[in-house]
Amino acid sequence: MATLEPTPTDLPALADDIGLAPRGIFAASWTFLQRQPVGAIGLVLVLIFGLAGIFADWIAPYSPTANDFAVMTEPPSWAHWLGTDQLGRDLLSRILFGARTAFIVGLTSALVGGVSGLLIGVASAYFGGQLDLWLQRLLDIVMAFPLIIMALAVVSIFGTGIQNVIVAITIPLIPRCARVVRSSALAIREVPYVDAARALGFGHTRIIMRHMVPNVMGPFLVIITAFVGQAILAEAALSYLGLGVQEPVPAWGLMLQGGAEEYATTAPWIAVFPGLAIMLTVFGINLFGDSLRDVLDPKMRDR
Questions:
Q1: Sign of dihedral through CA atoms 30, 36, 39, 40?
Q2: Within a 13 Å sphere around the CA of 283, how many CA atoms are in the beta-carbon half?
Q3: pLDDT tens for residues 158-182?
Q4: Taking residues 115-130, what's their average pLDDT?
Q5: Nearest to 95 by CA among 225, 234, 236
Q6: Domain covering 85-301 assigned CATH 1.10.3730.10 in the classification
């Protein structure tokens, strides 16, 4: 029976049908908005809080560290849209600056941990043998501890502060990314073009960076989005426990620590609004990550 194969003139149309044709960033973004409206909502939430953190110096009505003891625990009003905390600091201003802290910690931890895990996972899959065996056992040891427990252990060693919090969250993210990337890289290692590259005498570094890393970017990008949300939650948890970001740096976890218990009944807005900021940010990141997975996964594309 004769089989129908695409001719060279059919290939551009075929590539466009399956979403592989090269397009501008605006066209690709518009297509994403049309096909993934839920993911677009998540992206909008992330952009709102991200831009709020970037431009907090210009849009915040007050200084996030300025105390005004005349208006302590004041409810939301025209002067203070989200009210004030127990030291008279404007909650809206602190939430805006807290978004900057959250995204600095979240993005830095996710990128450093993700890229480190990417390189470890690809190298482990490519070389195999004893290197793969020992790397995987080391990753097993690190992954035996939950993320927050490992972060607490690292903070107890290095101390508090935003830099140490980033280190504490980055370390447990590395093996999680390495495992996901390795599973994809194992299949890519056996494809013909990798064997052809070896036969042509290309070095290991070139094969890894040019042929293997680009082909695991789909799952890598998806897990990076998940890591950002996990890192923001971990930073808020560490700050709430007093082991993360310290005063006077505005942070959502610190705001919860100051108002979640003592002022839960008399001034609930002190804890409610920072909690909503954390919830909406992580919710938006998760929505965007799920939609990004659907777009990049060929098995999910036609569903």
A1: positive
A2: 11
A3: 888 888 899 999 999 999 999 989 9
A4: 91
A5: 236
A6: no
